[in-house]
Automatic annotation (TrEMBL):
Annotated GO MF terms: hydrolase activity
UniProt cross-references to Pfam families, sorted A to Z: Isochorismatase (PF00857)
Keywords: Hydrolase
Organism: Pseudomonas nicosulfuronedens
SUPFAM superfamilies xref list: Isochorismatase-like hydrolases
Residue span(s) of domain Isochorismatase-like: 5-147
InterPro entries associated with the record: Isochorismatase-like_dom, Isochorismatase-like_hydrls, Isochorismatase-like_sf
Family matches, as PANTHER family: ISOCHORISMATASE HYDROLASE (PTHR43540:SF1), PEROXYUREIDOACRYLATE/UREIDOACRYLATE AMIDOHYDROLASE-RELATED (PTHR43540)
Name used for this protein in its record: Cysteine hydrolase
Lineage: Bacteria, Pseudomonadati, Pseudomonadota, Gammaproteobacteria, Pseudomonadales
Amino acid sequence: MAKQALILVDIQNDYFPSGKWPLVGIEAAADQAAKVLAAFRERGDLVVHVRHEFDSADAPFFAPGSDGAKIHGKVANLPGEPVVLKHFVNAFRDTDLKAILDQHGVASLVVVGHMSHMCVDGAVRAAADFGYPVTVLHDACATLDLEFNGVKVPAAQVHASYMASLAFAYAEVVSTADYLNR
């Protein structure tokens, strides 16, 4: 069987209710991410945590060295699990993520995390461009309400739009339960 890795994208404190940039449905999404994380650990498959920090201390969230930029306790990394620090939306840009995956002979990816419309989307598209078959667990991802040109878009619609887009050409998009029951 081909080696598979779990990529946990930006499941960080600032996205939770007491943080600087809370997401809609974050607790439920993190609970689903924790379930799949436990399954990967049990199987001994590679787990890679991706953590975002902005370059500036006055960033709106994920300020360097802040508690908000730390990985949330629900999915905290264990010793030996790689943590990739990124400064851009795309988790592969200017990081060692691809090298870690190559070093471990990873052939396919499962992606969970935040925000659906930004860093999850960026990581999945980049991974597909590198040739990885990708599975996204939609209920282990979260986002927030957006506004564009005076139009308010609820988080559920933002999330659904991005999951539909990824499912069209970049990834298999399934629920955590469907993935774990395979």
